[in-house]
Design brief:
This protein is of the alpha+beta class. The chain has 2 helices and 4 strands. The chain has a 4-stranded antiparallel sheet with strand order 2-3-1-4. It starts with a strand and ends with a strand.
């Protein structure tokens, strides 16, 4: 399992946090450790899910992942 924190641009409130958490929860083989304004920390098995799918889920919630 890999633990990674994604920095997220554009989040400003609790509704933003819920939107990101909702999109991430749609993914399988991922454990959501924490979602706060500006970041999400997740655990995932790299052999079962690609990092790009996690980024795409965050973007589906309407936000941008920054490096």
């Amino acid at each position: 399992m890999k633990t990674q924190e994604f920095k997220i641009e554009g989040m400003s409130c609790g509704h933003c946090v819920m939107a990101v958490r909702k999109e991430l929860s749609k993914l399988v083989n991922i454990k959501i450790d924490d979602v706060q304004i500006g970041k999400a920390k997740v655990e995932f098995d790299e052999s079962k899910i690609q990092e790009s799918l996690i980024v795409k889920a965050i973007e589906e919630a309407g936000f941008k992942v920054v490096s």
